[in-house]
Every structure is written in C-alpha cells, then in structure tokens.
Amino acid sequence: MATSSDYALGEYTFPRGWFMIGAASDATRIPAPIRYFGKDLVLYRGESGTAYVVDAYCPHMGAHLAKNTTSYIVRDGEHVEGESIRCPFHGWRFGTDGACNHIPYSDFIPKAAKLRTYPTIERAGIIWVWHDEEGLEPDVELANFGGHYGEPGWVEWKIDYMGDLNSHGIEIVDNMADFGHFIPIHGAKDWQYFANEFQGHVIHQYYSAGHRTLTAADGDQLVLDTWYEGPGFLQSEMAGAFDSFIMIANTPVEDGVTRSWHALMVKVHDGSRETTAEDRANALMYQEGSRLAFAQDVEIWANKRASINPLAIPNDGPYGKVRTWYRQFYNPRAMAPEIQARVNGLAVTLDRRPGHQAA
Ligand code: FES
Ligand SMILES: [Fe+2]
User: Fold this and answer.
1) CATH: 3.50.30.30, 2.102.10.10, 3.40.720.10, 3.40.50.720. Which one for 17-131?
2) β strands within 107-201, DSSP E
3) Distances (CA, A) of 152 to 116, 271, 319
4) Bigger pLDDT: 187 or 76?
5) Which of 31, 68, 206, 353 has its CA 20 to 30 A from that of 305?
6) Is residue 56 lining ligand 1, measured as CB closer than 6 Å?
7) Closest residue CA from atom 3 of ligand 1
8) Nearest ligand for residue 177 CA
9) Ion ligand 2: residue ranges with CB closer than 5 A
10) What is the pLDDT confidence band of residue 359, given thresholds at 50, 70 and 90?
11) Whose CA is nearest to atom 1 of ligand 1?
C-alpha cells in the first residue's frame, strides 16, 4: 500500500471533491458510524428526510455519536430530533450547522461546542459528500449523471459494492489514459479511436472500438465518452447493444485504501411505453456485464503493488498527464489553475477513424 505522500501528490493526504459514501438506503433515522478520509464520521437522516454527515466525536467529552445502543437517549428515541443529532453521553444536541443547540442541564452553551459537518447531497440513489481539507464550500456542482436517473425509458441502477482495495485512488484514475489494458483486460478489438481531453477539473476519455461481448453484432463499435468531474467518480455514456450510463466511485477510506462501487443505468425504450419486468431483467443483465468488465480492473488493483513511477512507454497513453491533473485535488484550491494549465487540451493516442490521421 502506498500513500499520497509516496506519490508526491501535494500538500493534502485526502483530495478535494464530491465522493460517494454509501447508498441512499444507508442513511436512516438511526445514526450510522462510517469511516472515510481517515476519519470517523456519522451518517444520519433528519425527520425531514434530509441526510447529514458529521464528525463522529462529540466536542464535549469525546463520545462517539453513533456507536451506542444502551444510552436512554438512544432507547427513548431522542438520538435524532428534528434535523439535530443528540450525543448519547450527556445529551448535548447539535444542529445542521454543527453548533450545539441544546444542553439538557445548562442554559450556557459554549461557542466551541461545534461538530464539523460536511456538505451532503442525496442524488441518483447515492449519498455524496464534499470533502475539502480547506473546509470551504464546494466550488464544483455535483454531477447529474446524464439526467438519466428517473428519466422515462431508463432503468435505474442498483449499487454494486466492488471492495475495499489496497490501492491509492491515483492507480484507479490512471485507467483513464491506460490504452494498453483495453485489449488484454477488457476484450477490446478493432480500435478506431482513443483520446483524452483535459478541461480544468474534468478529464475525458473518448473511446471507440469493437468488443467481444458488449456490442449487438460483430463489427459494431462500442462508443464511450467517459469522464471524471474531480477525483472521486467516473461517469460514462456508452452506446452499445443498449444505451447506458456507468458510474464508478472511488472513495478514500484510509490513505492508500480505496472503497469502490459500480452502477449502471440502461435505456430500455424511448419513454413512450411502460417499462416491463422483462426490460428490468434485461437492464440488470446488462449491468452485470458491465460490472464483470469493471471487476477485471478491480482484480488487478486488488492484487498489484503500487506503481509510484510507471515504466511508461509513449503508446501507453498520457498517464503522466493524468497524474499531473490529479494533483490539483491534493493542493490548495488557489493552485488548481496553474496545475490545470499544464495539462489542458486534447491528447490523442490512436486515431484510425475513416478520414482521420493519427496525431
Ligand atoms: S460527550 Fe457528548 S454530550 Fe458529553
Ligand atoms: Fe479498465
């Protein structure tokens, strides 16, 4: 296992961005202990239905806000009141801004009685948290996943948990530029196009090739636009046997340990009719095909040693650039424009499209 400092990523141990921290169903009125970014945190849902993520330890005397079953606070159903969470130890209650708003035995509430809270959004059946070592509000909007979640004609994804990998996130994001692995790992064939485009905090991979199983007919091309909006998750619009939309999330649990999930939405019709049980079964089968394709990467990551300095050759694709791009999230926000300027633009690895020349 290698850490952020082994890769010389920058000032911070954990990156800035939106990260998946669980499925929507993980957030309930019973506060749940979770651990990400090397920190103990708590996820709970307020009475309004909104999900919140806060630091786990009470500023009063350090009790864990969620790891309790025997306190009368918990037994009497006072653990979550309105949108606030109450500590099981002495009953101090903290509101959505993290500030203590009630102490059962004191009118005096010290200013320092404040929990750290994290901007949290529930979207597309997933809980997302903004992580930022500078503690600033998000400067990037959370993605909308092509607008396909809940769109007529599309079957929503289920969440595939892929494991806690002893691989740093950078080794996973390397995949964006990794031209050489598509044939041996994923069964690509009949290449037409492979390129990466760097646009500020976004990186794209444009891909067009045949595939052994994911195309409807032999000779068809699988065409993908795949991108990261920040370091935490991949989105991909895929045109193959079905139109579909992939999401792959990588969230640091500890420095060098990454939790990974996969999900896929499938367009089963144009929205002009009801979605049938057969449509759903087809979509689930397609998701499973995509999960198995991603599991081929995961098996590598779960077992490889760290690659601090890849023995790169030119035809590997521009992962030196990917690693530079990735550094913007490990340094103060103010440094991001300068890092982005070093990589912004299109990098074409292969172009055999009819009427085009390789760059
Ligand atoms: S430790 Fe939380 S209220 Fe005392
Ligand atoms: Fe891959």
Assistant:
1) 2.102.10.10
2) 117-118, 120-123, 126-131, 154-155, 160-165, 188-199
3) 39, 5, 38
4) 76
5) 206
6) no
7) 90
8) 2
9) 175, 297
10) very low
11) 61
Cα–chain center distance at 261: 8
What is the average pLDDT value for the chain, to the nearest integer?
95
Residue with tokens 């130890």: 89
Q: How far is CA 141 from the centre of its chain?
A: 14
d(CA 158, CA 164): 18
Using alpha carbons, select from 174, 191, 175, 172 the residue that is nearest to residue 183. Answer: 191
Handedness of CA 187, 249, 282, 300 (dihedral sign): positive
The pLDDT tens digits for 33-58 are 999 999 999 999 999 999 999 999 99
Q: What are residue 34's DSSP bridge partners?
A: 41
Domain 145-351 has CATH 3.90.380.10: yes
Rg of the chain over all Cα atoms, to the nearest angstrom? 22
Instruction: Report the half-sphere exposure of 318 (CA within 13 A, side-chain side).
Output: 22
Inform me whether the pLDDT recorded for 170 exceeds 50. Answer: yes
Ligand 1 site-directed mutation target among 42, 54, 60, 109, most atoms within 8 Å of CB: 60
- Residue 357 is predicted with a pLDDT of 59
Amino acid at 163: G
| Rounded mean pLDDT, 262-268 | 97
What pLDDT is stored for residue 240 in this prediction?
78
Count CB-CB contacts under 10 A for residue 157: 26
**From the centroid of its chain, how far is CA 329?**
14
For the chain, what are the domain ranges? 17-131, 145-351
Neighbour tally for 300: CB within 10 Å: 15
The 10s digit of each residue's pLDDT in 329-345 is 999 999 999 999 999 99
Report the 10 Å Cβ neighbour count for 314.
7
pLDDT tens digits, 120-146: 999 999 999 999 999 999 999 999 999
Q: Of ligand 1's atoms, which has the minimum distance to the CA of residue 87?
A: 2
Q: What is the pLDDT of residues 292-312, one digit of tens each?
A: 999 999 999 999 999 999 998
How large is the average pLDDT for residues 252-272? 97
Other beta carbons within 10 angstroms of residue 41's beta carbon come to: 22
Pocket lining: 179 vs ligand 1, CB cutoff 6 Å: no
